[in-house]
Specification:
eight-stranded antiparallel sheet, four-stranded antiparallel sheet, alpha+beta, 201 residues
Length: 201
Amino acid sequence: MSMAVRKRKKKIAGDLPDLDQLREELKRERYNQRYRQVLRSTIFILIVVAAAAVLVAVLFMPVLQIYGTSMVPTLSEGDIVVSLKGVDFKAGDMVCFYSGNKLLVKRYIAGPGQWVDIDEEGNVSVDGELLDEPYLEEKALGECDIDLPYQVPEKRIFCLGDHRSTSVDSRSTAIGCIADEEIVGKIVFRVWPMERFGSLQ
């Protein structure tokens, strides 16, 4: 075999890629494909979870931020709370509702047909029975321009703020009793601030 032929064969052999290099390249390509698939799947799952969370929050458990001081000491301005839709209320439950274009939080006191009375010291009675209100720091008649005792109209509820001396609520005709369609839900949980994280009564 001539020298020229041997050189040509050597050159051709030198141009061929190493088998180990091919394996490594193939491995890298497979890894990149798997990585892209996992990334796409993860992004899809995150979008679905986020959409489901938004749907749950809007339809079943709205998240709200508290403004104002009408529910002090139970709730403070800036607290973030979770409400639950479609529940029955009992005396003492915290209710979130629309009043005009504002969202308000007050305490459920009485339902349709019940009689509410409040004396000069701020003691509240429903159907002649004095309410036990351990969540209050002070009692007061507050801003009241309705005739007492007062009967709650059909399909409405009577609500009071915890800061009785300053809260504007169902004692005032400016707010009045809350219609069913205005109710957002029952406040059940505080998520912020973290040091006060937990369920609410």
